[in-house]
Amino acid sequence: MATLYKNARLIDPSNETDVKGDLLVENGLIAEIGENITAPEGAEIVDCKGRILSPGIIDMRSHSVDSAAAAAGGITTVILQPNQTTLIDSDAVVERIRRRSEDGNSVRVYPMGAATQGMAGEQVAEIGQMQESGAVAFTDCNKAVSNPLVMRRLLEYSGYFGALIVQYAQDDSLAAGGFAHEGELATRLGLAGIPAAAEVIQIERDARLSELTGSPVHFALVSSREGVEAVRRAKAQGIKITCATAPHYLMLNDNALEGYRTFAKVLPPLRGEEDRLALIAGLADGTIDVMVSDHNPKSADVKRLPLGQAAAGIVGAETLLALTLSVVHSGKVELMTALKALISTPAQLLKLPYGTLKKGTPADLMIFDAEKPWRILSEDFKSVAKNTPFDTVPVQGQVWRTIVGGKTLFSQEA
Amino acid sequence: MASYPRAEISPPSGSLFPHKHLLGIWGMDPTSIKHLLDVAEKYVDQNRQAKKTTSTCAGLTQINLFFENSTRTLMSFEIAGKRLGMDTISMSTGSSSIKKGETLLDTAATLNAMHPDVLVMRHADSGAVKLLSEKMDCAVINAGDGRSEHPTQALLDALTIRRRKGQIHGQTIVISGDIAHSRVARSNIYLLNAMGARVRLIAPPTLLPADVERLGVEVYHRMDEGLEGADVVMMLRLQQERMNGAFLPSLREYYRFWGLTKEKLSVAKDDVLVMHPGPMNRGVEIASDVADDLDRSAIEEQVEMGVAVRMACLDVLTRGLRGDE
Fold first, then answer.
1. Rg (Cα) of chain B, in Å, rounded?
2. Do strands B172-176 and B232-235 pair parallel, antiparallel, or not at all (unpaired)?
3. Annotated catalytic sites of A, by residue?
4. CATH of the domain at A257
5. What is the per-residue pLDDT across A197-231, written as a single tens digit (0 to 9) for each?
6. Which domain holds residue A262?
7. Model ipTM?
8. Which residues on chain A are in Cβ contact (under 8 Å) with B210?
9. How many Cβ contacts (< 8 angstroms) between chains A and B?
């Protein structure tokens, strides 16, 4: 069982290499990488025709195991959030999810466990046992661990296990009841707002607690200019914090809610134009470490409601790469920087053996054409849900093949 | 007559009111607003006669669907419909199927199947009326949605001001009270701005929404500064749940600083007009002697204008149906 990928532009963000060459996969592992590799007998030969071959995307924030959608988006590892129908807050649940994903026909799934029991923010969850069962990080998903004492204990305790704590950067009491960026648009439409200060306050407090305990903190989604600046300041002081954002925060501002469009309802909310630009700059200079899809399929039933009642979330797996590449095509972010944020940095943060083209590592790959223009059409989505604000938007950069453990899970013509 | 800041260009359709629904004042041009007020003017006279009912809209069905408690607005719409000869049916929250878990769009489909000609709706969520209108074949009138808009209230306020002051353009109009949670304030800001008034807001900082000055208003916190030289003062109702601790320390303190008293009003113009959308909290946002001052208070007149304005809206929105463009 061998496959030789020929004539590829091999980009490995884990060591920042970008060379032309071939890559040989044998028994699900990367067997050889270099120029003019001779195919072993019986090997399948795939001509990449100059397309980029890189490790597959590690999507660090997804609310659903949507394997077909993930594979279509070049994602080879999905990091599942703990707020599932059965809350992921024990080793048994973690184990079941891990086992189910290892069937050889789906992308890899690693859950994040709940950081506190029942995500109630009061008692530290069984981090050690969940980690043993395969949980890669711990988070209360869409709410912050708000009690500072609980957060301190959580960081101290998880530090012993070397487990990453992922914090939702939003002060709950300041955000209370809000679902739109507090500003002109929310005022005009009469929507309850969330000030950017809610994000900054959480980031700054947790930076202090990270400093106190010596444990790293990762912020799940940063949405505001002030949030990016707070992360930048803390990093400059040597505090071990990292953060992520999602493409919709780079592409849209709160005007997308005009006309009460529920498909643009996300949490944290889409913010102002200067926030959007600051996030792009933050990705470019490395302040923002990771790009996530925040993939959150929602049926029309929960979206076709008044804005205040509608569910928040965007179905993002299939558009993650193309939308992230849009800031590359506009010349604001380097291609290597974008790929690191999608691939190698999340692998390193979560201590996963993927996200690299090193010889002997699992062959989790994506092959894509970074220039190819196409139009996002929600009706063509592999995902069961179609809740995207990007329907009919033209983009550049399309996944050609997605390979997990040597097996092609997604491919398309041309 | 008034001169308006924007050119009065006839809309492409040639109609003076080229809208299918009345969802809000935002985006409505001065021509449409003026047209509704002109039509309402006629109904003010009709309502003062002994025989108030005509058959203008006879045979048409009006449904009032209120997902939020209301007495005066609901009654005003009902009377307006009946005076035009419409068949009016009203439904309030308690009797609606929303309590049984039906979604708003299913409710819309159900009502639509009954072929109403006008649907008047109030809902606690901003944007809910617009959402429903997308599924209705008939004209939809927003009777208040969340904190977003309450267009007929703004129109009746405008009619009151126009009749008392001769014009809206150039008037200094103060809106005071809980701006943050008020749809009345928003609709009034949009309408008064469109008609060329100078709009001032007075409220404690906790009751002002973010970036509100970008809606084209002057923002004051002190009554004596904001009321200086005002032609009109619109007081807003303070909702009970805002009064204790969360947004304001106490009623007593609110009245002390933001309650409208004769003394505070003394810096406004001598002929200042005092308005309130009702129901009033006497001794909270407004002193009784101000509310009852026959020379200045237009509060009862507002209620009267309300019926006329709503008749105008029902009339204008059904003209196409009646073949009376």
1. 19
2. parallel
3. 294
4. 3.20.20.140
5. 999 999 999 999 999 999 999 999 999 999 999 99
6. 56-355+370-394
7. 0.89
8. 182-184, 186-187, 193, 195
9. 64
